What does this fold into?
Amino acid sequence: MKKLIFVVIVLFSCNHLMAQKSILIKGDLKNVPDSTIVTLLDGMANKEVSTDKVIKGKFTLKGTTPITTFFIIGFSKMTAKLPLFISNDALKITGDITLPNNIVYEGSASHAIYMSYMKVLNPKMEGYFKTLAGIQSEKNTKTKDSLTLLAEGQSKDLVLTYEEMSKKYAQSPVTAFFLFQFANIFPTVKEKLATYFDQLKGEAKKGPFAEILGKTLQSIGFGAIGSNMPEFKQNDVNGNPVSLSSFKGKYVLVDFWASWCGPCRAENPNVVKAYNEFKNKNFTILSVSLDQDKAKWLDAIQKDGLTWTHVSDLKYWNNAVAQQFGIQSIPASFIIDPTGKIIGKDLRGEDLRNFLIQNLK
It folds into this structure.
């Protein structure tokens, strides 16, 4: 989301003398209708790896992966999604699709680590996002302030929880994955990203998430307050080219997001509120989407009420503007003044509104 949204090297199974050379997933799940198509999706590349047809709850998925990474199992005509963090493992999945928290996964040490993280972090994240939603909808100032303090405490607790677990699993790529997620969600983590990254060991510093974190650190100097935002051009929803320079003379929030990015969608109500409040004060928004599917991109724009200019080349993380600016996680944003100078970055919620109140003349 800002990208985001959840592993060790190939391990020896206690039942085999040689490492598993490919992904082999055997599923036996109750309450999945016969003939349902089950799909294994590479969560990083957003590409289909394998499919099968469910018969009497059973299915088999096969594939290969050069690294331990994030996958998703999806079911046709069902909302259920099963996240996996695996390598070339022989994985057995059993349980009831209607009781996802009780599903049992056997055969992947990396996924076991992922589940350890999720068991602790997921309830806390749900509480945190519930509080954020309450802040957005609350009208009473005292109650809003109280919820804001609660959210601050919840965010600190989440970061401390990550820190504790990351020490235990410092050599797992799963830890790099959660560091990537937390840097995307919590500004305090991104500010200390170099320190957190240095604490990763061995295999945790290999693979796609470590690579993204490394690139983030390399580009962290970009977008310094007071520097000029580089020019870029990309097509809007109608295929017409839009350049950043065409907004010269206005205060502009350049917002990087995507329809599939949960934190981005959660923040959109705040962005809409800011736009509606300040659009008549020489302020506008230019959103750059890291989507692949145009229909989903347009649907999210409509559903979230994003009534400003949108551009994308529909190349996912390879979006040319995101690549140009070294964007490694979303949501990410920059505020430029009428001369094109960067005066703010990654401001969210009330911080964004307060900044605009103070700076828009």
Summary: Confidence is low (pLDDT under 50) at residues 1-18. The chain has ten helices and 15 strands.
